[in-house]
Design brief:
about 220 residues; two-stranded antiparallel sheet; 4 helices; about 35% helix
Length: about 220
Amino acid sequence: MNIRFIYCIIMTILVWSCKTQNVVVKKTFFENNQSSLTQNDTTFVNLSDYSNEFILDLKYATDDNFLKSKMYECGTCFLRLKTLNNLIEANKEFKKKGYKIKLFDCYRPLQVQRKMWALVPNPEYVANPTKGSIHNRGGAVDITLVDEAGNELDMGSAFDFFGAASSHFYKELPKEVLKNRQLLKKIMLRHNFESFDSEWWHYNLKGSRKDKISNFVWECH
């Protein structure tokens, strides 16, 4: 009888100990996971590792840009994770309407900003690298929309055309063009982005100006 009683006490203690240890393990894992998520929010990530639902036409990896010069060794789109998450959600909404986002530029290393400034030292066209741009912070994207056949929607001017027609306030455009620009802007603003007045293609994630300027360069494979 005494042996049974002692056995029951031992088993009770063991069960209680295992449950307590399991709770601690779960709590520790949850806390670590939450910490990781917080840290990852501002980590730079490769868009292609997270989604294949975008069209990439990264102009500065070619000489098909207003500088007529190749700025990147290869066309890879890096962004901070928080920027990418919002962009993915925006793209989901565009897809429901039969469109996709095409990206012309994403994160831009500071050293590339310096190269651009050396070619065109004009703040109307290129951000001064002493202050840096939102592109250098991983919070800006240059984009347009394509239809299901991959055709770009008419936005009234080419990407990186620095003239009055590129402004959101320029209204002397066909109704279809104004409609396309409004569609792009409306959905991007809905997903935590801000438009750039003089460039219909440029959008900044809200609050991204507070992030640090970066200068890392991705590897080309």
